[in-house]
Design brief:
The protein is α+β, with helices and mostly antiparallel strands. Helices cover 40% and strands 11% of the residues.
């Protein structure tokens, strides 16, 4: 079997998003779940809206008869029995963010994500209160 050299293809964002929605691009089952927070999502959307490139998406062509990876759609995309043409090896977070940008779907919000955000906000509030107490001479060190 001959090994093919990697290819670099510029693909329009809209085409990628359509391929995600149609199930042509999916995730290998071993790929982690959606992890980006709102700030990361806002950052990529701001960059795209200003005309900056989205970054590299690395895909593996699916269909080798000898090696069959299990696959799943990007979170939030509803598919039934669609065999992918490509599996995402790198760029899942950006593609999911792009999928959100186009309003095609929303990934599920995990309880872990909600608790993590809540914890961050509580820690920030405690820090602000502590600084206020010190600045107001309510507490002395």
């Amino acid at each position: 079997m001959a090994i093919k050299a990697p290819q670099s293809n510029d693909t329009e964002l809209n085409e990628l998003m359509n391929d995600v929605k149609d199930g042509k691009i999916q995730l290998p089952e071993f790929q982690r779940s959606w992890t980006w927070d709102d700030n990361r999502l806002r950052g990529i959307l701001a960059s795209i809206s200003q005309g900056y490139p989205m970054g590299v998406i690395m895909r593996l062509q699916y269909g080798n008869e000898d090696i069959k990876f299990k696959y799943r759609p990007i979170e939030g995309v509803k598919l039934i029995d669609v065999v992918p043409e490509f599996l995402i090896l790198d760029g899942q977070q950006r593609l999911t963010g792009g999928n959100l940008r186009t309003g095609r779907s929303m990934p599920p919000i995990s309880l872990r994500h909600v608790l993590h955000r809540f914890k961050q906000e509580i820690v920030q509030l405690i820090k602000e209160l502590w600084h206020w107490f010190i600045e107001s001479n309510v507490v002395t060190l």
